[in-house]
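User: Please fill in residues for this 899-position structure.
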């Protein structure tokens, strides 16, 4: 028995092994089927996972590494399984005929064993394919490229912005201009072509801010770009979110691009670290208002200029397309004419250019141009696309008064420039600023309104304190004032040579009319104007109005005939009993007739020009008068011409005791003005010592005086100027004996002293211009050191003057002599040797002009004078070459400005 047991154990083991191997052979078909089914289930799972992945990838997600590895494993597994299944099917087909035994047991055994193992691997891989998350958020590029069409004419602005970005001292940069001017396009170009190519920033974040500026909205955009996790964001307060953003951004060199900013956005509340030279980060913003740039504390504010004429034409032609441009030889020239109507505004150029695509005949183009010139709102795309974009700036104006003042400038024709003060006076005359009792307060508010309209780019700067309106902005304003509000023809601007029937009809409806004519000498429009509030006429060739012209204007308030060629007051003007504002400035008008006395409601009377006679008691009857201005410069030289001209003009002199002769003693006029209860503003020439004494004795007139011209003060060698708080300009002319000018240093409290504080209550604080002319004995103008706000000084034909500013040794160094002077003109002062004994800083000086001053050999300049302001120095070449300089450096500094 001892030898039998081992034998039985061996036999049992052999049998077990043989039985296992036999199972692989026997169950080959079953294993193959199981493997095939398991593989199909794995493939189904693969398709499900792959579908989920593709869907997430369409959402800018990225598949996880685990899922990507599993998908590749499935594909590899499928190849391996297919190979086993193919060989297994072949082996099964090789069975012995009539039996179920394989021909090659060894081969069947190996396949069966491999299929069994692979079935387990397939099942395991299938179990691994149950994923909760198949993709993660795709990391965004540091700078996203933004969609942008081809740009035209932005190269110079692009270069300037890029230069500012490279300047480490500039952390916040503002781009401002009216809507449709290309601000966003410019910032997009900077983003795509400079910031993306630059290695200076780790991340760029673009946020459309719009209005109202929402901290929460901006934070959300930044959070998405920074991938701040949901668990650190959800249910957090604004302050907590700001901390999260700050902690991420403070470790990065970032550039924040804020588009369409309408008001201050507090970057600290958002969580944006302040950009500076240490972190080298930047904030760039676009806005329609310079004030917003200032509120955002931009170190650099760049006005996005409209396109030049050549650039505008190129952009316009690009939008029209070559096919249309080549459809007729006349069309390219007509396209240039159409482009010029847009005044370089990209939005208008693009809109109109697209509208002209396919217009292949010259007639279509001519009709389109005529529509742009006459009814731009009717042109395709203007009323429903261009004007609404521009209207956002109008809607954002702070109150109705500013909106009304803005629309008012549209009365004037295209490209018209108007002096700031003239426009403000018109606003006051219309009653827009009636809330202010004082003229000075109204003027200050008017200047504030003009500055605000300039900062929001609805008004534009013109030269010499004038403003104008961009043509497309003006078209929008007319659209707003009339068609948009349903008040057609409320404003009528006409160039008239004859008044046609349709124009007469429109005039009857209009509330405000601007008429200009280049050929008519007489205006003979017959109809009534039942709604007319404002009439402005411009024509130097227009000599007269028909006798009934002014008879049927029952509600008119403003009549502006300045720069019209009338020599007599129009007949019937006394019928305008509702008139409150009358401007007869810069006309050849010589006489103010008694008919004017019927205008009892008149509050503003402007007569600057060549007026010589006002009949007595005309002004005294204007009981509501607040503003009276006669600026008749150099009437004495005109007087010499008058005496030698016609007998009719010569008969004016001293022959009519009912007349006040402005070129002689005008004391009677001062007495009439003094008797007016509401008089608040007077600009007037004072002729003779008696008239000047009358002015000195009237505190009321001194308080009202704004522009004072002193002429022919006989026998006066010393002129003691009284305190005239509101005086704006002072002209002293033909005072043959005058040697010295002194000022009363007492302020309103009776105290004396230097005007070093520049407080508004200082004497002559408002005095901006001083002009001395034909004062042969005047020695100097040292008294000007007490005029803190002086901007313009003109000295002409003062033969005895050797110094402009004499001995000021007792004056403090910090007095700031001529600190606000912009223009200095010295003409025919033959003995002048010095402007000032010490160098002056001249921080505001723009122009210096010297003519016929041969003894002026030294200028009060050093290397720091007029450093950031000077534009030109004019004079004779011989004089310039003979100047003496402290050192060559100073001479080299100023030589480039000499012309």
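Assistant: Residues filled in for all 899 positions:
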């Amino acid at each position: 028995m001892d030898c039998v047991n081992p034998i039985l154990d061996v036999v049992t083991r052999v049998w077990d092994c043989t039985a296992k191997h036999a199972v692989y052979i026997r169950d080959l078909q079953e294993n193959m089927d199981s493997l095939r089914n398991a593989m199909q289930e794995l493939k189904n799972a693969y398709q499900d996972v792959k579908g989920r992945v593709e869907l997430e990838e369409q959402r800018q997600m990225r598949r996880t590494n685990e899922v990507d590895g599993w998908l590749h494993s499935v594909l590899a597994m499928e190849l391996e399984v297919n190979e086993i299944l193919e060989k297994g099917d072949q082996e099964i087909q090789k069975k012995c005929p009539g039996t179920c035994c394989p021909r090659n047991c060894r081969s069947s055994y190996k396949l069966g064993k491999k299929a069994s193992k692979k079935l387990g691997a397939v099942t395991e891989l299938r179990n691994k394919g149950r994923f909760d998350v198949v993709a993660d958020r795709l990391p965004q590029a540091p700078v996203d490229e933004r969609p942008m069409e081809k740009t035209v004419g932005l190269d110079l602005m692009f270069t300037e912005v890029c230069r500012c970005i490279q300047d480490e001292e500039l952390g916040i940069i503002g781009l401002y201009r009216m809507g449709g001017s290309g601000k966003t396009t410019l910032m997009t170009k900077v983003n795509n072509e400079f910031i993306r190519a630059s290695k200076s920033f780790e991340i760029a974040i673009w946020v459309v801010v719009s209005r109202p500026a929402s901290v929460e909205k901006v934070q959300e955009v930044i959070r998405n770009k920074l991938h701040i996790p949901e668990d650190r964001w959800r249910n957090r307060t604004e302050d907590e979110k700001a901390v999260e953003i700050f902690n991420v951004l403070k470790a990065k060199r970032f550039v924040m691009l804020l588009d369409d900013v309408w008001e201050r956005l507090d970057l600290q509340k958002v969580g944006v670290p302040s950009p500076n030279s240490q972190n080298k980060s930047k904030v760039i913003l676009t806005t329609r208002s310079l004030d917003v740039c200032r509120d955002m504390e931009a170190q650099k504010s760049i006005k996005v200029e409209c396109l030049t004429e050549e650039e505008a034409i190129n952009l316009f032609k690009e939008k029209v397309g070559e096919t249309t441009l080549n459809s007729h030889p006349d069309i390219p020239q007509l396209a240039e004419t159409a482009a010029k109507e847009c005044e370089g505004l990209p939005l208008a150029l693009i809109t109109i250019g697209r509208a002209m695509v396919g217009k292949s005949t010259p007639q279509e183009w001519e009709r389109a141009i005529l529509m742009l010139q006459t009814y731009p709102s009717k042109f395709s795309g203007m009323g429903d696309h261009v004007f609404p974009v521009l209207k956002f700036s109008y809607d954002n104006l702070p109150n109705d008064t500013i909106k009304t003042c803005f629309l008012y400038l549209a009365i004037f024709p295209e490209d018209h420039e108007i002096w700031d003060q003239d426009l403000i006076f018109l606003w006051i005359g219309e009653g827009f600023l009636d809330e202010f009792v004082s003229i000075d307060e109204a003027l200050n508010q008017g200047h504030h309104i003009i500055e605000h309209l300039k900062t929001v780019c609805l008004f534009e700067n013109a030269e010499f304190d004038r403003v104008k309106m961009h043509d497309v902005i003006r078209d929008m304003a007319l659209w707003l004032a009339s068609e948009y509000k349903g008040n057609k023809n409320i404003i009528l601007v006409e160039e008239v040579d004859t008044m046609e029937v349709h124009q007469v009809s429109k005039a009857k409806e209009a509330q405000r009319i601007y008429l200009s004519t280049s050929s008519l000498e007489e205006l003979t429009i017959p109809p009534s104007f039942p709604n007319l509030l404002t009439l402005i006429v411009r024509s130097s060739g227009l000599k007269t109005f028909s006798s009934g012209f002014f008879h049927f204007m029952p509600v008119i308030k403003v009549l502006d005939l300045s720069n019209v060629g009338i020599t007599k007051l129009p007949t019937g003007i006394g019928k305008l009993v509702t008139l409150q504002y009358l401007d007869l400035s810069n006309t050849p008008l010589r006489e103010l007739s008694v008919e004017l006395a019927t205008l009892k409601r008149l509050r503003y009377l402007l007569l600057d020009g060549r007026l010589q006679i006002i009949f007595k008691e005309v002004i005294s009857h204007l009981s509501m008068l607040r503003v009276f201005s006669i600026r008749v410069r150099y009437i004495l030289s005109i007087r010499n011409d008058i005496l030698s001209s016609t007998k009719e003009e010569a008969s004016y002199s001293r022959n009519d005791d009912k007349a006040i002769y402005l070129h002689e003693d005008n004391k009677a006029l001062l007495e009439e003005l003094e008797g007016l209860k509401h008089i608040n503003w007077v600009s007037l020439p004072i002729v003779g010592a008696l008239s000047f004494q009358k002015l000195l004795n009237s505190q009321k007139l001194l308080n009202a005086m704004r522009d004072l011209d002193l002429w022919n003060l006989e026998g006066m060698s010393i002129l003691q100027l009284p305190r005239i708080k509101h005086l704006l300009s002072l002209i002293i002319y033909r005072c043959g004996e005058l040697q010295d000018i002194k000022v009363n240093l007492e302020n309103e409290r009776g105290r004396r002293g230097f005007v070093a504080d520049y407080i508004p209550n200082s004497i002559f604080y408002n005095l901006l211009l001083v002009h001395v002319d034909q004062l042969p004995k005047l020695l100097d103008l040292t008294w000007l050191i007490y005029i803190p706000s002086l901007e313009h000084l003109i000295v002409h034909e003062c033969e005895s003057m050797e110094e402009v500013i004499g001995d000021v040794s007792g004056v403090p160094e910090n007095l700031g002599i001529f600190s606000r002077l912009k223009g200095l003109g010295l003409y025919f002062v033959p003995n002048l040797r010095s402007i000032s004994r010490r160098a002056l800083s001249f921080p505001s000086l723009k122009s210096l002009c010297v003519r016929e001053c041969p003894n002026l050999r030294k200028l009060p300049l050093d290397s720091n004078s007029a450093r950031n302001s000077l534009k030109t120095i004019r004079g004779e070449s011989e004089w310039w070459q003979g100047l003496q300089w402290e050192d060559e450096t100073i001479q080299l500094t100023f030589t480039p400005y000499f012309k």
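For context: The CA atoms of residues 850 and 875 lie 5 Å apart.
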